[in-house]
């Protein structure tokens, strides 16, 4: 799916996102280590709703794997955690995605809103650093780093990554 279509779906998903129910939260917790859960808890309502949906789809797809690797569902839950500290609302994320690489590279070093906007494109690196710092499992760290890269640049196993990607795109 193109990034713009994904973005439009995410936009409406975001503004209409419902809080996770107690049952849904109970499903999430056992899939995460203590450190991973501390990161996931930082997501806003819209991101919790999105990552929950991705993880449920990943669970459905996991039957296609001979062996489900450790951290598979956690990787789905945490792929976008690099967005947490940027604290951008839905509209700002749309601007950041559409502006994309056209924002001056120097802005990434800036303090304040423009810096956070420019760093949005770095959310994969920011996420993998954040996950490393809490001792997250290797697949979880790697998928955060890889999830917007072309397949030939993945550290994650291709079959595993393709299912995680499909779960994110649907
Ligand atoms: Fe992402
Ligand atoms: Fe996503």
List the SSEs and their pairings:
Layout: H1 3-15, H2 22-28, H3 34-40, H4 45-61, H5 72-78, H6 90-99, H7 112-118, H8 123-133, H9 138-146, H10 158-169
Helix pairs in contact: 1-4, 1-6, 4-5, 4-10, 5-9, 8-9
The protein binds fe (ii) ion (FE2) (2 copies).
Residues 80, 123, 147-148 line the site of one fe (ii) ion (FE2).
For the structure shown, list the relevant keywords.
binds fe (ii) ion, mainly alpha, Hypothetical protein af1432, 170 residues, 10 helices
Overview of the structural elements:
This protein is mainly α and 170 residues long. The chain has a single domain, classed as Hypothetical protein af1432, CATH 1.10.3210. It contains ten helices and no strands. The longest helix is centred in the first third of the chain and has 17 residues, at 45-61. The chain is globular and about 45 Å long. The termini are close together. The model has no long low-confidence stretch (mean pLDDT 93). The chain binds fe (ii) ion (2 copies). One fe (ii) ion is lined by residues 50, 54, 79-80, 168.
What CATH calls the topology is Hypothetical protein af1432
Number of helices: 10
Quaternary status of these chains?
Answer: single chain
- The computed structural class is mainly alpha
What are the distinct ligands in this entry?
A: fe (ii) ion
Strand content of the residues, in percent? Answer: under 5%
- The name of the CATH architecture is Orthogonal Bundle
The end-to-end distance, rounded to whole angstroms, is 8 Å
Poorly predicted sequence stretches spanning 5 or more consecutive residues: none
What does the main sheet amount to? none
Please report the total strand number as a whole number: 0
Q: What is the radius of gyration computed over CA atoms, rounded to a whole number of angstroms?
A: 15 Å
Kindly give the count of domains: 1
Mean of pLDDT: 93
CATH class: Mainly Alpha
Can you write the helix and strand succession as a string? Answer: HHHHHHHHHH
